[in-house]
C-alpha cells in the first residue's frame, strides 16, 4: 500500500470571492428596485437587519459594507435570475457571491446591492458532489473538506490540496489553489476539467478546454471578475490508503502543533540571532510502498541534505 511521510507543514493560501457588477447608476430611494421583489426568487431574498449584518464583513474584517439584501439560492438558476434582473434594470446594482468570505479587503461584499449566500445551495439534502472514476463534480458552494471526504469513500482524491480545506470550491478556483503538491501538478486551477459559470450578464455557461475556452481560462483564477463558478469538474487520482507522519499533531504547544519542542527552540534561537532575518519553512513529502519501506529513512535523509 502506498504511504507518505511528511517532514513539516506549509500553510496554504485562502481565496477571494469577488464581485460581479453592472454599470452602476443612482439607486431609487429606499434601496433596491421594488419590482425585484416581484420575481420568482423573491421568497429567497432577505432584507432583515440580521441577514444584511452577517453579510457586511468578510474574513479580513478590515472593510465593512452593508448590502441591501441577501439571496439564499436553491440552485444556480436563482443566481442567474438575480444578475439578469440587475443588468436589465434602469438602476443596476452590485451582486457578490459569498462563500466562506475568505477575502481580506471587502472583495466578497456588495455595498448597496445583493450578497449571494453560496452556502445556501449546499444546505439540506441536496448534496452537489458526484464522484466518478476519474473526476468529481462539485458545486461551487461545497467545501473542499467535504469533497475530500466524498472522494476518499471511493479511494480517490484530487491531485492538489491547500492546507486549509474549509473553503469553497468556487472561491478557491477563483484564486488559484496552491498546496504542497503544486510543484508537481500545478495549482488547483490546472486540474479542472470543466466549469459551470453564471456570467456577469446572467448567462449560464458550461465551459472547458474545448468549449467556451476563453471563459474557462478567465474564470479560473479570475478573482470573480468573469462570473460565478457554480460547478467544477475536478480531476482525481488514486489516494494512498495510509499516511505515516514523523510526529503527531499533539506534540509541541497548541499554538504550533506541527513542531516539536526542539524545533521550536531552534527556531527561537535563529530568530534571536538576527531579528531582521526571515525564516522559511519547506514542506516535503515522500511517497513509498511496502516494497521500499526498509530504506525510506535513508532516502529521506539524502533528500533533506
TrEMBL record:
Top-level taxon: Eukaryota
Protein name (Swiss-Prot/TrEMBL): Uncharacterized protein
Originating species: Avena sativa
Phylogenetic placement of the source organism: Eukaryota, Viridiplantae, Streptophyta, Embryophyta, Tracheophyta
